[in-house]
Amino acid sequence: AIWQLYSQGRPGEARQAIAQRQSDEAGWQPPTDLLDRLALAEARERLVNASNIKQYETVIRLGSENPQLLTCSEVDVLWRVAEAFASTDRQNRALDAYRYILSNCDNPRERLATVQNASQLLDQPQLDELLALERTDANGVGEFMSVRDDIARNFVARGDEDPSFNVPASELSRIEKLATENRTASDARLLGWYYLRRDNHTEAEKWFRMARESEDSAEASQGLALALIARDQHAEAEEVIYPWRGENEDTRKVYLASAANLLGVEPRPALSDTILQRIVAEAAQQRDVPTARQLGWYARAWEQHQTAGQWFLTALSWDQDDEPSAYGLALTRHLMGDAAGLAEIKRIWTRGDLRRQGLA
Fold it and tell me: pLDDT tens for residues 29-42?
């Protein structure tokens, strides 16, 4: 019964059962092997608990005191000891622990998990040492293929966040190959943002289009719209991002930017009523000054001066200090022969009244 408690991972109850039998049977002693195994199980339990609460020095001490735990049958313990070393600035010792597993242990899932674990804690040169221990199957496929892919993704993702970061060409090519061959939308989006951050809008457009072909999403549409805006393809940008405009604040801003840019194209495009109505609706709902201002200039270009004046006034009602809208309103009143209205604008802006209440 005591052995059964031990085998079930209940060392505390096994200790109680031993004490009870010693009380019931004077002179009875448990087998030495049982006591040794219980002591090791208890050490393992203490090590795991210390690891869970990040008491790394305790983890290292328990590991050194119980070398029987540092074997292929206790890979989880080896991972925890490696983490403890890495978290206390002893990366070389962590590397030794990971190297031991890859040099001696055969479980494929544990070997893969070991490299995945190490990739979160070691620097690239140390990780390369571990990757060199990769085994290949009969077809020559490496067991760490997925980890190598994730490492490459991490490089490109870092390049997304930091435009000054130099992503190795080999890692960039790896993700491009994955995105092309597997048609994975996530990899294509990753590449789209990478190139967009570096103002390579042609490449960014290419990868965002591929991402949308595999899986249309707000993120891919947002990225494509930004690339199109940068390439002055404002009509398509507005069309691409319109269905996703309400997804989040970023997509909403991109839609309004695409709409404002579309309205500002020279010569002014003849937009359909459908497009104009949805731009107007979104501008009004969001009280977006740049889009309202561009609606004013758009109307003025088609000699709809009354409408233009209303849009400039609307923009000023949302931001009384928007000088471009005041300038547009002044030109509109001049064209309409409204001398008194023009004089009022001049008076207010000459005086420098920050509230500009006389216009709205």
Answer: 877 777 778 878 88
